Amino acid sequence: MSTITNEPVLDSLAPSTPGLWSFGHVTVERVDSGPISLDRRGGRLHVRHSLTPADLSERLVAGVTSSIQDAEFGQDEFELTMVGLVRSTVDGALESWTTYYRNSLAELLDGTADFAPIHDKAEELVRGSVLDLGSCFGFLPLRLARAGMDVTATDILPGTMILLDAVAPELGITIDTVICDAGEVPAPDNSADTVTAIHLLEHVDDSVGEAVIAQALRIARQRVVIAVPFEDEATACHGHIRTFDLESLRAVGRQTGVPFEVFEHHGGWLVLDASAA
């Protein structure tokens, strides 16, 4: 049974006033100088910043996280703030996102991005065609497609896949996208050589995680590659709801009943032998 609500749907490509972006109760404004600042009044959040186009990349995630001194700052506000920072820094929707994507990919490829070692390891581990679960902005699928691989990105949020579809041609990259729940993927059995789930499982509970892995093993011909962060506490503003260590990853591997490998590299990795499933 579906429920109809009056909640607005975020369109990251919608027109906005240059230097100013608003959605719901969040407003992001570019000012002449100063660090990222947050002002919460009367149920509204006003974010001010003086970023330049060169500042737009995934590095902002760490910068925004360190700026948060608000216990009520949840995942929705974090994501809206990130969108607003991009959209208020460069005029034009597609232009702003293309800048963000181009800068982020460059930093991931030259190793200066915090997430670069994780993408390096993921690219090393994949084999053949790839279906990526929970792609979010889709940086890993874009990187793999740029390297000549046949890649499909998936995410439950339509907006992220619509954005990826719009930006990929601007970057000269061909990629397929699918809007779906990672636990219910509309892909045939054994339809991709590798299925990846990179920093996805920390966003879902145990039962959903089991469904995601079952889907991955159903779809993958060769292997499933899973990566998770190691955290003392789940980072709520990033949407994390559980934590992992090497032993909990081994437990996940044992539950699948297939041969697996677990190791640590900027977090934890679980590689499942899908050919034995």
UniProtKB/TrEMBL annotation:
It comes from Rhodococcus erythropolis (strain PR4 / NBRC 100887). SUPFAM superfamilies: S-adenosyl-L-methionine-dependent methyltransferases. Residues 131-222 form the Methyltransferase type domain. Pfam families: Methyltransf_11. It comes from the Bacteria. GO terms for molecular function: S-adenosylmethionine-dependent methyltransferase activity. Gene3D superfamilies: Vaccinia Virus protein VP39 (3.40.50.150). This is Methyltransferase type 11 domain-containing protein. The lineage of its organism: Bacteria, Bacillati, Actinomycetota, Actinomycetes, Mycobacteriales.
